[in-house]
Amino acid sequence: MKQLETKILESGKVIGDDILKVDAFLNHQIDPVLMAGVGKAFAAAFKDMGVTRILTLESSGIAPAVMTGLEMGVPVVFGRKSKSLTLTDGLYTAEVRSYTKQTVNEIAVSKNFIEKDDVILIIDDFLANGQAALGLKSLVDQAGAQIAGIGIVIEKTFQPGRALLVEQGMKMVSLARIEKFEEGRVIFAPADI
Amino acid sequence: MKQLETKILESGKVIGDDILKVDAFLNHQIDPVLMAGVGKAFAAAFKDMGVTRILTLESSGIAPAVMTGLEMGVPVVFGRKSKSLTLTDGLYTAEVRSYTKQTVNEIAVSKNFIEKDDVILIIDDFLANGQAALGLKSLVDQAGAQIAGIGIVIEKTFQPGRALLVEQGMKMVSLARIEKFEEGRVIFAPADI
Fold this sequence. Notes:
By secondary structure, chain A is an alpha/beta fold. Chain A has helices at 2-11, 23-27, 32-45, 62-72, 131-143, 161-167; strands at residues 13-15, 19-21, 29-30, 53-57, 76-82, 91-98, 103-110, 119-127, 146-156, 172-182, 185-189. Helices cover 31% and strands 37% of the residues of chain A.
């Protein structure tokens, strides 16, 4: 997605060898017009797949997911993150390891909001090691629902996330795919759309 | 806002004397079409006020804030919640007490994303005791920016939030105003628009 790649080049900040900060338009400040474009792109990529609901993760997944939901006319559910859950009645839960932060979070979604006849589109802001996406997939699996695919705003292709997800038969669409960082600059791989 | 009141009556759940759960369309599952309507309503209410940025709080404020930002053509920043912040360099921070949960959270926003010549519209999902809104106001005050006003999706009029904010000279617009709960039913006060 050209508009997104341009924004990454203009406003993204490369930190060290493998971190891209996009606080200026996705993870802290949000560019709503760009997000509307992201929503349109995901809706086009997953149309005709019978999507009934979108599942994402708080907080940075919410803006792209809601714009996609608006475009597709389906509700959006966001999984909640928690250090440790004490009450899990009525929830589907999964553990998500963060390699960057060296933490394990639990994520949870109410059983009321994923039903077994749902066809779920998973949306997330970043794909690196794929742990968050696998956690979201686990929530859908626990509900016995189907997964239409996974839409990722920014993928780091040099980390193993995509391979793990494709191995499990997931249809994956990333709007910007980063091949590497070179002297603080972002080098893109061809995007999926 | 009629469409919002109807949704509250259809899908909200009254718990005890003073809690309304709107997990079905705002706080966990999100209705994107309703949120687009919320965004249009706030944009109309605060037009011609020179708004340059919207400030909200993760996670439930993000959807209504982003839809408002899309309509007004301005960026959205979401404050982050944290149990306790150890690193506050580069952040404006404030304490927010939750009377319901008996906790104190810190909220924070990067100094990069509120500037002193900004005119900020604060958006939040709920107004009860007004503590979150006052915390957001404090972040804006620390930056030396102006506040255009506060947009609230659902206000509980029987709690002191509005009085506290109006006392400080804030323009307030609530899209649904709850007067009371009566035998598990929601009774509305006239909304601001």
